Amino acid sequence: MARAKAVPWQPPVIAGSKGREVTQLTELLGRVRSGDAQARDALFTAAYAELHRLARARLVTERTVQRDWDKARLILAETLR
Questions:
Q1: What is the chain's pLDDT, residue by residue, as a tens digit (81 residues)?
Q2: Which residues of 30-59 are buried (b: 16+ CB within 10 A; e: fewer)?
Q3: Helical H segments across the chain, by residue range
Q4: Which of 13, 55, 58, 77 could be a cystine partner for 65, CB 3.0 to 4.6 Å?
């Protein structure tokens, strides 16, 4: 069985008022990369709030959000090392 070709991740295109939140998350990511510990904490808080909002909009359970958030946090922590 042939493996599917990997497609590089692309950030979502978001129109409307939510673009401001995406810009804030992008700014926080840049500050985290620079070693700003306060930005790291703010990023986790802001990202969780946004993920929770998206999940609620898609009627995903809190348990699923928490599981996926735990995975995302582990990936982010590994990337920042």
A1: 455 555 555 554 444 445 666 788 888 889 989 998 898 888 888 888 888 777 777 776 777 778 888 888 888 888 887
A2: eebeeeeeebbebbbebbeeebeeebeeee
A3: 19-33, 37-57, 62-80
A4: 55
